[in-house]
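From the shared-data thread, chain only:
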Amino acid sequence: MEKVYKLLKNVGGANIAIGILLIVIGLTLGILNIVSGASLLSNRKNILF
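Structure, as tokens:
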């Protein structure tokens, strides 16, 4: 029974670490997306279609 608790503890810790990593990556990509969109809006006069 003790092996099961150790395994669950390790898996839970890994899941928390992966969750935090995914939140950080999501925030970073969102900020980069907003910045690139803002630069496109500021230079929209130079874009030709």
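The chain has a mean pLDDT of 93.
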